[in-house]
């Protein structure tokens, strides 16, 4: 096993997929000789050439639109959004074409493509480089949304996404790229799309999280363990399809739930988890289902103190867990 950071695991997954299947190619802004703005695609153009590692114009609609066309004719494109914040010019292609193609063609056509998108805050990216976009896209039937938190999961889930017969939005938290490290097997292994992971067992409260918040939740849980509060942490890994069984089993065991996500709290992805728990695990609850999300302001500030005020932190999570434990 090799110890990799999240970025290296994603690069390795793309490399292995391109080596195994010449239908796989990557397209995006500066993905070629520059290796991407975060260096995720570093070295790939030297191995596979300009026909399979394609530097695109600064036009997300072209990146996604051309990938849909290629996927319809048997290719396996990986379309990179330089930042998730810039995905919205391609929203119509994703919603109306990629996600609906199988339905609108009566199952005769499918769109096997991956859209990679670095998302999230914590790197002082400010207005146009810090957004969490998952709530917009998890609302779209026909589109899978994957959000791994560790190098182990990222590599396996990206390979699974590339192999999937339908479109997948693959979210990569920017702060995790170099911050989060872990061991990744040299031998082939799998993590299936749609399966959550209980990363920490506990008895008193369940925390449901994903991306960077998974790591913050574990940190908060370790803090509370010294105070006699046992916290279980569930990493969703895939946002759609949602692993309802794992979420509900955890809450039924602990009786309390806190959903943590970085996006604006109002109408954020965590609202769906809260509704699921309230509807299907109400009789097991010993306290109110709670959410902790980002502030409901138009954008994340550039200033480090203000950015910290916007985002959930391990300390904020621990404080909410203490309050919930007191019920």
The helix count comes to 13
The strand count comes to 14
User: What number of structural domains do the residues give?
Assistant: 2
Principal-axis shape equals globular
Instruction: Give the mean pLDDT.
Output: 97
Proportion of residues in helical segments: 25-40%
CATH architecture identity of the largest domain:
3-Layer(aba) Sandwich
Strand order of the largest sheet: 3-2-4-5-7-6-12
Radius of gyration from CA coordinates? 20 Å
Largest sheet: 7 strands, mixed
Termini separation comes to 44 Å
Regions with little confidence, pLDDT below 50 for 5+ residues: none
Q: How would you sum up this structure, described in words?
A:
The chain contains 13 helices and 14 strands. The protein is α/β, with parallel strands linked by helices and 327 residues long. The strands form 3 sheets. Strands 3-2-4-5-7-6-12 form a 7-stranded mixed sheet, sandwiched between helices. A 5-stranded mixed sheet has the order 9-11-10-13-14, sandwiched between helices. Strands 1-8 form a two-stranded antiparallel sheet. β13, α11 and β14 (290-294) form a beta-alpha-beta unit. α9 packs across α13. It is globular, with a radius of gyration of 20 Å. The N and C termini lie far apart (44 Å).
């Amino acid at each position: 096993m090799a110890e990799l950071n999240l970025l290296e695991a994603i690069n390795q997954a793309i490399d292995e997929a391109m080596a195994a299947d010449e239908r796989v190619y990557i397209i995006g802004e500066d993905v070629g000789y520059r290796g991407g703005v975060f260096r995720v695609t570093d070295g790939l153009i030297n191995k596979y050439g300009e026909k399979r590692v394609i530097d695109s114009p600064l036009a997300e609609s072209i990146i996604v639109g051309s990938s849909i066309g290629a996927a319809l004719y048997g290719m396996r494109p990986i379309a990179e959004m330089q930042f998730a914040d810039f995905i919205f010019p391609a929203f119509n292609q994703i919603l109306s074409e990629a996600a609906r193609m199988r339905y609108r063609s009566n199952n005769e056509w499918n769109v096997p493509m991956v859209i990679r998108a670095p998302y999230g805050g914590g790197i002082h990216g400010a207005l146009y480089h810090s957004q969490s976009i998952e709530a917009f896209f998890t609302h779209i039937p026909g589109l899978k949304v994957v959000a791994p938190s560790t190098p182990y999961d990222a590599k396996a889930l990206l390979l699974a996404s590339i192999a999937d017969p339908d479109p997948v939005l693959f979210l990569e938290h920017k702060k995790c790229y170099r911050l989060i490290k872990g061991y990744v097997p040299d031998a082939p292994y799998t993590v299936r799309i749609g399966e959550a992971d209980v990363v920490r067992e506990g008895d008193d409260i369940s925390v449901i999280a994903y991306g960077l918040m998974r790591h913050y939740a574990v940190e908060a849980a370790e803090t509370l363990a010294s105070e006699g509060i046992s916290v279980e942490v569930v990493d969703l890994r895939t946002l759609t399809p949602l692993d309802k069984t794992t979420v509900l089993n955890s809450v039924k065991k602990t009786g309390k739930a806190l959903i943590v996500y970085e996006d604006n709290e109002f109408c954020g992805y965590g609202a769906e988890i809260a509704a699921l728990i309230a509807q299907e695990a109400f009789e097991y609850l010993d306290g109110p289902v709670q959410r902790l999300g980002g502030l409901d302001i138009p954008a994340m500030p550039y200033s480090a103190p203000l950015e910290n005020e916007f985002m959930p932190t391990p300390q904020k999570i621990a404080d909410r867990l203490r309050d919930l434990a007191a019920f």
